[in-house]
Amino acid sequence: YNPAGIGYIDSPKFNISANTYNYLRTTQYNEEIQNSSGEYEPIEAEISDFSIVANSLVYGINISKNQAIAIGLFVPYQDTLLGSINEEIYGSPWNTQLSTKVNYNSKFYVGKIGYGFTIGNFLSLGASVGFGYYKATVEGTTMMLLKDQTEQQNMLLIREIYATQENYTIYSGIGAQLKFLSYNKIGVYYQTPVFNIHGTFKKNEIYWTTSYLNGSPSADDTAHEIQHDYKLFRKVLPHFLSIGYGYSKPRSWGLSMEMVPVLAVTNMTKDVINFRGGLELFFTEGFALRTGFFTDYSMEEDVTKASNNYEKIDYYGISMSISFSSILKILKQKS
């Protein structure tokens, strides 16, 4: 959020919201297997995801006529992605059956404190600091069965992988909002890269091989383990600039449009520009229904046989949320 909006808090306020969103995506892959004619056939992966629920819990209070502070707990994203590949490639000398299943989970929890103040009735400025916890896990199994065309010789390869990443992070942001023509606002917000305070990465891989070649059976297995710590203040997420317009009529409705240039850090290869838009309807002073769309373009280069990445995913999403606010104020009035 843009902390400049905190400056407009004129009494103690409490807000809780629940948000659900789903992804539509376009994907590029460069996984291929050579067929009998010497050409390469692409491996098509199927990916699905569950609906994701992200929550926010915010309390704000004015400390003077034109100053206010707020603290909040946020879940920017909590993803579960399931992927699978099932392919048969006929070639020479081997026919190949490939089966892969991958389960990816990630979550990012953030605690934030912000400060905002107003200058007159039209301009507000603000700043915030966030502390986050990020965790991702990947579990996958790949089975590859290779048979010669006589089916007298075969080889079964199995690979299992389990990887985890944990990071404790810190970042900050500054913003400004300008009011004009009653219910209209334009705003700008810059967020620094997300810096690692403490983080670890662990990966375990196990390989099994069973074969029947030239009349002789054989079996083998190997295991690998990798672990490393992330450097202090390593940039783990990019920084961005948000430029937006909003219209909000109290107890009625509102809309917003936003352009978000995202600037690459660390191992990311290119900058992107994302877009967001939203609509909100107020049913009472403290209850609102919101819907919106967003883009999340990949910062990887396009996938080619010469590129370093084998996968690139651009996300397009739609969201819907409900929000309850000003609870403390309402309870005080009732009491």
Structure description:
The protein is an all-beta fold and 335 residues long. 2% of the residues lie in helices and 74% in strands. The strands form two sheets. A twelve-stranded antiparallel barrel has the order 1-5-6-7-8-9-10-14-15-16-17-18. A hairpin with a 3-residue loop joins strand 9 and strand 10. The C terminus is likely disordered.
Q: Helix content range of the residues, please? A: under 10%
Largest sheet entry? 12 strands, antiparallel, barrel
Beta-strand fraction estimate? over 45%
Which stretches are poorly predicted, pLDDT < 50 over at least 5 residues? 329-335
Say how many strands there are.
18
Distance between the termini: 32 Å
Helix segment count?
1
Mean pLDDT: 82
- What is Rg? 26 Å
- Strand neighbour order, sheet with most strands: 1-5-6-7-8-9-10-14-15-16-17-18
What class would the helix/strand composition place it in? mainly beta
The best one-word shape is elongated
